Amino acid sequence: MTSEGLTYAAAGVDTEAGDKAVELMKDAVRRTQGPEVLGGVGGFAGLYDMSAFRDYRKPLLATSTDGVGTKVAIAQALDKHDTIGFDLVGMVVDDIVVVGAKPLFMTDYIATGKVVPERVADIVRGIAQACEVAGTALVGGETAEHPGLLAPDEYDVAGAATGIVEADGVLGPERVREGDVLIAMGSSGLHSNGYSLVRAVVKHAGWELDRHVEELGRTLGEELLEPTRVYASDVLALAADDAAHVHAFTHVTGGGLAANLARVLPAGTVATVDRASWEVPPVFRMVRELGGVPRGDLENTLNLGVGMVAVVDAEGTDAALRRLEVLGVPAWELGRIETLDLTTPSPEDLVGGTKGVRGGAVRLVNEYR
Question: Distances from the Cα of 72 to the Cαs of 77, 201, 322, in angstroms?
Fold first, then answer.
């Protein structure tokens, strides 16, 4: 111990670096904020003016929180940090819009072994850009330096968002019925789920991130770091289209397509999903072939090219597909909702819900193209 004693900086925490990071990111954050956000950057709490919603008859707040999992390891390995924010925002706000709620504002949290202002600013700028795409204000956040707990170049990110929906506008299982049609919305790639499996496969194969993969048309690292598609604005636009007759949405994240779709189906129904309705993108085929991963594991872990699903009235199918085409979202008819025959034992190919939700079931049929 020196005669002057230990300081916070000597313990590994640099508060000046944190201040510099805020200066580097604040313009990007401000671009997400409209007149509803009060106080600007740097306050103890973000303030949001709710006056515009005074005419709601029975407003409900919707909230969600999430992180991006081990995808951060890819960003750290490539030393590229300006896209991981899209993964964070997508994981959070796209859970909120599933119930028909408009995501109003978001906060973020970054924990790192050492605050490198430029790196933190890159992360937050990515979050802010994704918030702009989602139409969501970034009202605050926190960066914490954890020396000794995390290595200097390690970090993790998390976020939370709040949205609003009129009570009689909530979407979900209560609206879904026999004959409804499933509309798939294409993913941008792996999104932000299943990276523990993907990283294990890559390690098993002995591939490096800078390896050019012909089937992907770019390096492995570039593919694995492809940002999550943020659906929020497009989903809300589709829900607002009266001709589409939207009854429910599901966000395809951890657990795969079938388990997440089952969460928004009422008991006594089964969604039949046609695997032959789309071509699985190359990155998923690569994971399967490199790791010898069984199809069941792939389907229960990765999105396989479907990032969001809308459940619409059969009469609204064409309108929904036209609307998504205009919005620039790849979409196709994925399957239909049927009544589950409860007089016979449930076949082994039926998948139920996850996260403690027990409602309808999903059956995947045919083979992928």
Answer: 9, 17, 36
